[in-house]
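Private note to self, pasted from the team thread so I don't lose it. Backbone tokens:
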């Protein structure tokens, strides 16, 4: 090992890896013992072998290892120094695996970027190998996580226990990536990939968490039927909370979706957005949008009187401005999504205001025989046809009335408020849960105080009654080594929602594509554990006294890692390479036809079917 240490010392002095030697160096490794620790007999040489290893510090070098064997019990002795550098049967060292894993999952760099970065360090590796080492990194981390389970449990017990937040994410036909996270420490505890969030698929996952970490203090989740049923079976009697945001969203969808879809359908029928954009483009060319005209309009709006300098062009500019004001309805969105944000209804309401305004303007301008009314008249005529639609007006009126009731419930629950600025990150008002419950009780009493209102909102009342106990509960009193502690569970599952949004954002940054369907299909279930590395206490626990992940991974059995990799590959349901080569053949149907039916049969049959 003297030569090896010399190489490292040269690196420390500032020499780049791979530029140390004109030719690839050779380093020899031997077992640390020459006699068997059990019987004391002198060890014999069993074999010697050589292989190229690549590490961050040295780059590529040739390894020659001598393996000893006890002549008595045939125990094999290898070099611990070599095993600390790289996994058995692996070309790349633990430090390369860690570098690739951190680059992929923490720094969100894609395979090509990492390949170029490593090449600049004289470490040459393919994009495919980088992807493989990334999966290896996740498996090593997952095994370190599981080996540290007792220390993690001990750490959570010092805080009184853990609150289990569970949720899943998917995209398109991808599997559901389902996670369990401690709401107190914000540590990801376990993950699974499942086809759907059905009860029978979730129960084994919850049982595994229960076996590994014990019963949680409470659970927080959305209103998925599969989750509710699985929680009831695995964690009976435990405090179980429904996310207030998810509850509100589901209530709002049930209440408003039918009217909202009708509004969207009717607006699309008249192609109103496209016609307004066409009109705006025409006006833009006509008036030229000169700064002096815009300045005159702005000055007129501020003073309340029309300026005479460009009086003939201001109506056209005012029409152009009103059209874009209608499109600005999206600015009313608070990034909550439907049913909290209702941009199509807001767009309809703005069209209605513009139509009413134009009617008043035209009454005055026609009476005064004002010139250049054409832009006003054309816009009014366009809106007249749309706003004369009875179905559209009835749906909008119905939704406006229901939206007022829904917003009243939002105010009572003190979450996702119309004036809120946190969007999907909104965790709700910090008011105590009893005060919020009192306001919701008052809201419910108001709903049932009128028979007509009670009949209209019967489903909302039923949902409030059904989930009341899961929405409101007393704070949890727990015993800790420091004494009793009061824990107030978060009343939203926002911690996991934020987590998944962060994961998707990182994946999009790395891949450069909006769709994550393929990514969710390909990634390993335990990939979310990487986020735990941002937690200092978690990092200290899984390092288990080691100064770095590189040394910690060297302690993990590489046979287990290889087995986990094989299992992961099997679960990917990938097309075997041999089948891939077959399906690339353009004339595959003809070849299969020849194989089973004889020559010419496929073309004849196809011709008959046509």
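Design output:
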């Amino acid at each position: 090992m003297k030569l090896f240490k010399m190489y490292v010392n040269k690196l420390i002095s500032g020499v780049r890896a791979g530029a140390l030697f004109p030719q690839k160096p050779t380093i020899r490794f031997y077992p640390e013992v020459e006699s068997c620790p059990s019987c004391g007999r002198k060890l014999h040489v069993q074999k010697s072998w050589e292989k190229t290893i690549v590490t961050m510090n040295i780059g590529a070098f040739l390894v020659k290892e001598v393996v000893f064997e006890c002549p008595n019990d045939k125990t094999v002795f290898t070099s611990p120094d070599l095993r600390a550098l790289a996994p058995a049967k692996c070309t790349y060292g633990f430090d390369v695996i860690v570098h690739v894993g951190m680059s992929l999952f923490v720094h969100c760099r894609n395979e090509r970027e990492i390949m170029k970065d490593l090449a600049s360090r004289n470490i040459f590796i393919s994009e495919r190998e980088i992807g493989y080492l990334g999966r290896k990194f996740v498996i090593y981390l997952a095994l370190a996580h599981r080996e540290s389970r007792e220390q993690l449990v001990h750490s959570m017990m010092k805080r009184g226990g853990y609150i289990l937040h569970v949720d899943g994410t998917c995209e398109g036909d991808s599997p559901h990536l389902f996670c369990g996270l401690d709401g107190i420490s914000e540590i990801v505890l376990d993950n699974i990939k499942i086809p759907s969030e059905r009860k029978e698929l979730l129960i084994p996952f919850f049982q595994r968490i229960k076996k590994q970490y014990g019963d949680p203090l409470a659970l927080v989740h959305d209103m998925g039927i599969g989750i509710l049923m699985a929680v009831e079976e695995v964690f009976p009697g435990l405090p179980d909370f429904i996310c207030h945001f998810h509850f509100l969203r589901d209530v709002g969808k049930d209440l408003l979706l039918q009217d909202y879809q009708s509004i969207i359908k009717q607006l699309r029928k008249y192609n109103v957005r496209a016609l307004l954009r066409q009109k705006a483009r025409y006006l833009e060319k006509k008036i030229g949008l000169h700064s002096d005209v815009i300045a005159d309009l702005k000055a007129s709006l501020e003073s309340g009187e029309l300026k005479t300098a460009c009086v003939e062009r201001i109506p056209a500019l005012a029409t152009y401005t009103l059209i874009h004001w209608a499109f600005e309805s999206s600015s009313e969105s608070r990034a909550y999504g439907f049913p909290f944000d209702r941009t199509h209804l807001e767009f309809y309401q703005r069209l209605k205001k513009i139509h009413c305004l134009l009617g008043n303007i035209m009454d005055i301008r026609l009476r005064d025989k004002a010139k250049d009314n054409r832009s006003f008249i054309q816009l009014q005529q366009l809106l007249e046809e749309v706003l004369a639609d009875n179905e559209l007006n009835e749906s909008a009126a119905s939704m406006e009335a229901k939206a007022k009731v829904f917003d009243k419930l939002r105010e009572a629950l003190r979450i996702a408020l119309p004036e809120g600025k946190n969007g999907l990150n909104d965790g709700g008002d910090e008011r105590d849960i009893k005060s919020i419950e009192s306001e919701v009780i008052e809201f419910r009493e108001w709903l049932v105080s009128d028979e007509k209102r009670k009949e209209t909102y019967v489903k909302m009342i039923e949902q409030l009654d059904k989930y009341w106990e899961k929405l409101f509960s007393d704070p949890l009193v727990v015993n800790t080594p420091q004494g009793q502690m009061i824990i107030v569970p978060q009343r939203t599952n926002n911690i996991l929602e934020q987590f998944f949004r962060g994961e998707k954002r990182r994946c999009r940054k790395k891949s450069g594509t909006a769709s994550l369907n393929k990514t969710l299909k390909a990634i390993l279930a335990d990939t979310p554990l990487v986020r735990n590395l941002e937690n200092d206490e978690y990092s200290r626990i899984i390092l288990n006294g080691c100064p770095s992940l590189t040394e910690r991974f060297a302690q993990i059995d590489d046979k287990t890692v290889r087995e986990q990799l094989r299992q992961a590959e099997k679960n990917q349901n990938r097309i075997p390479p041999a089948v891939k080569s077959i399906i690339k053949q353009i004339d595959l149907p003809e070849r299969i036809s020849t194989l089973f039916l004889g020559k010419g049969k496929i073309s004849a049959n196809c011709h008959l079917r046509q």
